[in-house]
Design a protein that fits this description.
The protein is an alpha/beta fold and 482 residues long. The protein has 17 helices and 14 strands.
Length: 482
């Protein structure tokens, strides 16, 4: 039988099949390498963006940080990194809590660091400034227990990882990470070092959010089936203001297109649904509108000021992003993010169950157990019955000290009280990674016509048996306030 003559079409098909086989072998090799190395975060980001390795399992959990109680400490010695915006307020709040000592402050701007010390009574903290890596000296000190990080987003994970490896617990502003890789780095470092890694999601400590969490635990809403959260806050002017954020870092974050700030609305809903503690997120889909505001603003400003010319040539995130999540138990979550439209502030905070629902935004707070909202008198009775212990103890002081109506102070007080009494934290590294990973995953979904994207299980199966958050102050609650 004679040889078949090669044709252009057969050559093209052979080239295509060989290429397909090579790609398959390449992916198989990468998958095997990933499993053997025990580092899912070592996978090429380009492949992750395409979803090619989405099903590769993470390595086994080294140590379960959910419910972990570090050894108690009589005094919590703190070092602050970044005190330009949120950090300065944190120093002020911490100064009102007993059992703490601020040992050091780091900020690349010396004047900013020195201004933050005015809130501290007693021995002045050491200052680390002027050079980009000076913060590492703070982390390396032997007389610091907790590093409190309030820097631009892209620095959160590198600083937290370094501090944990230096033997420090860390508390980090939101979001704690901006990539899937960073989320896994935080999880693996926290497990390896047995150091707490808490994201400072203050909205979990708002008064109504805490009350609805307590009500949900008592079964008033029945089986929780749906939740909604958001960050709807018109920051158009603030993001473009020259003096708002160091080197315009927050404006630059808006070059990304997705839900870039999901944690404020998501954190309280996850706690209500016991996510990572009886349920887990399975997958999400995300969609963004076009940008109708930010590019136009950049062009408008560039016409008057050359400083803005680089931004006039950039694309920005869409005005509104809507992301939907389905959990393993079949519940749903809807998140929204819009920081460039003229509308009232809202976090939505809606929880819906088989027996009732609650919603905060728009205010006032409302609860329903049927077709109609309950009356103001009935609401007052519920507040008296279901206000949690932490609010009864700290609430009034929190309102006086301030910080988003007091929830910032309540968050800080609870963190210090847990560390001093050797109690598990309300928010662990798995919560920090999960709530933050929604941003990069939403970007991936938006890029791919809102196709669904699997959400990693950072607990690696422990979610099924992890204990729920303890609302009582049992074992603690003895930290005083100045």
């Amino acid at each position: 039988m004679g040889c078949l003559k090669a044709t252009p079409n057969s050559n093209r098909r052979r080239t295509y099949m060989n290429s397909k086989r090579r790609n398959f072998l390449k992916l198989a090799g990468l998958s095997s390498l990933s499993v053997l190395s025990g580092k899912i975060f070592a996978q090429p980001q380009a492949l992750l963006d395409k979803g090619a390795l989405a099903t590769v399992p993470a390595p086994k959990q080294k140590f379960n940080m959910c419910g972990y109680a570090a050894p108690k400490m009589d005094k919590v010695r703190i070092g602050f990194i970044g005190v330009g915006n949120r950090g300065a307020s944190a120093v002020y709040r911490i100064a009102h809590i007993d059992g703490v000592e601020v040992k050091a402050i780091a900020d690349i701007r010396r004047g900013v660091a020195e201004r933050a010390t005015k809130h501290i009574k007693g021995e002045a903290p050491s200052i680390y400034a002027d050079k980009e890596d000076e913060w590492k000296k703070l982390c390396d000190r032997s007389d610091i227990d907790l590093v409190y990080i309030c820097t631009p987003w892209h620095l959160h994970t590198p600083m937290a990882v370094y501090a944990m490896k230096a033997g420090k617990h860390v508390a980090v502003e939101v979001p704690i990470a901006t990539t899937v890789e960073e989320c896994w780095q935080l999880v693996e470092t926290s497990e390896a070092t047995k150091k707490h890694c808490m994201m400072l999601e203050n909205c979990c400590y708002d008064f109504f959010e805490l009350m609805t969490l307590n009500m949900a635990r008592q079964g008033l809403f029945g089986e929780i089936l749906h939740g909604e959260g958001a960050y709807l806050h018109n920051l158009l002017q603030e993001n473009f203001a020259k003096d708002s954020y160091y080197e315009m870092w927050r404006l630059k974050e808006n070059f990304r297109n997705g839900n870039l700030y999901p944690t404020h609305g998501l954190g309280p809903i996850c706690q209500l649904m016991d996510i990572n503690r009886g349920d887990k997120m399975s997958y999400l889909t995300s969609m963004s509108s076009n940008d109708f505001s930010m590019h136009a603003k950049a062009v408008e400003l560039a016409a008057k000021d050359p400083f803005y010319e680089p931004y006039a040539g950039r694309s920005f995130r869409g005005n509104m992003n809507t992301t939907t999540i389905r959990t393993q138990r079949g519940r749903t979550i809807m998140l929204q993010h819009d920081v460039s439209s003229p509308r009232p502030y809202s976090r939505i905070h809606l929880v819906s169950g088989t027996k009732g629902m609650a919603q905060k935004w728009p205010e006032p707070e409302r609860i329903a157990f049927g077709h109609d909202w309950i009356s103001a008198e009935e609401m007052k009775k519920l507040e008296q019955q279901y206000t949690p212990e932490i609010v009864l103890k700290v609430g009034e002081m929190a309102k006086k000290v301030g910080g988003h109506g007091g929830m910032d102070f309540m968050m800080d007080w609870r963190l210090i009280d847990c560390l001093r009494n050797g109690l598990p934290l309300d928010q662990d590294v798995y919560d920090a990674a999960l709530w933050s990973v929604i941003a990069p995953l939403s970007e991936r979904s938006v890029k791919n016509r809102s196709n669904s994207v699997d959400i990693p299980d950072f607990t690696r199966g422990a979610w099924a048996s992890n204990a729920k958050i303890e609302l009582s102050l049992k074992g603690g609650g003895n930290t005083g306030m100045k």
